[in-house]
Amino acid sequence: MVTERSARRRGGRGGFTLIELMIVAVVLGILAAAIVPRVIDRAKTARINRARSDIASLESAMEMFYLHMGRFPTTEEGLRVLYYRPEGGEDENWDGPYVSKPMFKDPWNRDYVYSCPGAHSDLPFEIVSYGKDGQEGGEGENADLHNWVEEDAG
Predict the structure, then answer these.
(1) pLDDT tens-digit profile of 34-47?
(2) 50-146 carries CATH number 3.30.700.10
(3) CB contact at 8 A, 132 and 40
(4) Beta-strand runs (E) in 49-125
(5) Alpha carbon distance 69, 91 (integer Å)
């Protein structure tokens, strides 16, 4: 009896009408239009923050390297020497790795640029990520991130 009654209640209606499906699609589109830009902005911000954090961690690792080795890595040695023992005879004081994992690539999968001595500051070394575009200069996600503080031009 219950099954007979529920079968009659459904009648000829077996699914959603085209109008109902269109309304659901429009609502989902409106929600996506409101949410997606916020998620994308958070991803951009996360990459920038990760690059800043990586550069700060690399700076700390450089200081530890300096304490053990009495020098900063050469430009040729680069950041790899913070994780891998340097080749050659001057490695007896090396007590690394100085970073917990290789940190040679920025969040945009480009190598961090390392130079010793620094070319843009008075620091003994410089670490740079050229941002999403991989080019010097830029704004927003394309801006350069580095370990020196730029002075205001004014």
Answers:
(1) 877 776 777 788 88
(2) yes
(3) no
(4) 113-115
(5) 8
